[in-house]
Design brief:
CATH superfamily: 5'-nuclease
Structural class: alpha/beta
Strand order of the largest sheet: 1-2-3
CATH topology: Rossmann fold
Number of strands: 3
Strand content: 15-25%
Distance between the termini: 35 Å
Length: 109
């Protein structure tokens, strides 16, 4: 028998709660969500329905060897969306060694 221990971090719940709370308190004019998890659909739909003046964006991490697309469940509730590929992440990293500094990128990155 195999046992899998799935440790739920409640990240989606926290993100959804903050997105909705921020809309109601006027904390933002535009929110950009970095996820492709359709669990966030209800939060995006709620903000869009009750606060149409706020802009919503979606940056969706898409693995390089995966031909998935941005979740249509999410994209129907945002004003704009962009995929985030491994190439984008690689290009956004600091260089191996920071110029004029003793700092360097950890090998695990």
């Amino acid at each position: 028998m195999q046992v899998y221990d799935f440790n739920e971090k409640k990240t989606d719940v926290n993100l959804a709660a903050d997105l909705i709370a921020g809309a109601w308190t006027g904390a933002y004019e535009q929110a950009v969500v970095c996820s492709n998890d359709s669990d966030l659909e209800a939060a995006l739909a709620t903000v869009r329905r009750h606060h149409a003046e706020l802009r919503l964006g979606l940056v969706a991490p898409i693995p390089g060897d995966d031909h998935r697309r941005i979740s249509s469940d999410l994209s129907r509730h945002v004003h704009w969306s962009k995929p985030l590929s491994p190439v984008h992440l690689r290009n956004a990293q600091l260089p191996e060694r920071i110029p004029h500094s003793a700092l360097s990128k950890p090998p695990s990155w």
